[in-house]
Amino acid sequence: MKAATACASCGTELRENAKFCDECGAAVSATAEPAEYKQVTVLFADVVHSMDIAAAVGAERLREIMAELVERAAAVVQRYGGTVDKFTGDGLMAVFGAPAALEDHALRACLAGLDIQQAVAGLGAEVERRDGIDLRLRVGL
After folding, report:
1. Which residues form the domain of 18?
2. What's the average pLDDT block by block, 10 residues per block, for the chain (141 residues)?
3. Domain count of the fold of the chain
């Protein structure tokens, strides 16, 4: 937000840091920054059959598995210049190209998706050995 330079009611030029217009007395409010439009690529990743996994291993073990999965996936996203926007309980959403613009955001997102699959495959092997369940992740752009 930035300070307004003219009164929204009467158009009079405002003094610096004025709270009210000297001409009409209207309250001065900050003007919103103009919207920024950027080309971005959004990556979604979620665990296949997460509810079945939860039933098989219990809530505490599922929390451990998901924490490790999210940690590995977030590290990959960060390595490729993306930003994790939100965690969805059984996955995540990441943005490439915002807030910092990246000309190659689509390529970075693709490479991150492939690396996330590899990272989770390693975790999946550990989970299968320990818990006897198949941990797989879907990734889409």
Report:
1. 1-35
2. 73 87 85 79 96 93 94 97 93 94 96 97 95 95 97
3. 2
